[in-house]
Design goal:
- The structure is a single chain.
- By secondary structure, the chain is mainly alpha-helical.
- The protein is about 45% helix and about 10% strand.
- A two-stranded antiparallel sheet has the order 1-2.
- The protein starts with a helix and ends in a 10-residue tail after the last strand.
């Protein structure tokens, strides 16, 4: 009885509970989407063709920061070679 219970529990856990492909299929069949704020932003950025911004440099509009670079893409601009 003990060994049969162990085997059934192991099969249920491995075949159903921890089966990522099965749960992904269920979610896609029923149209489930996470309501997590992180997942909402992730889906929004995945659908945005202008993300990530490439070949542009964005500056901060905060006056106390001066004209500092807040984001630079695709390469890091450094003046170390001139020093």
């Amino acid at each position: 009885m003990l060994s049969s219970n162990f085997i059934v529990s192991l099969v249920v856990e491995e075949a159903i509970i921890e089966n990522r492909a099965l749960w992904t299929t269920f979610k896609s069949c029923f149209g489930y989407q996470s309501k997590s704020q992180y997942r909402i932003w992730q889906r929004a950025l995945a659908d945005d063709p202008s993300w990530p911004p490439l070949n542009q440099t964005s500056y901060s509009d905060m006056p106390e920061c001066g004209r500092g670079v807040s984001y630079s893409n695709p390469v890091f601009e450094s003046n170390e070679e001139q020093l």
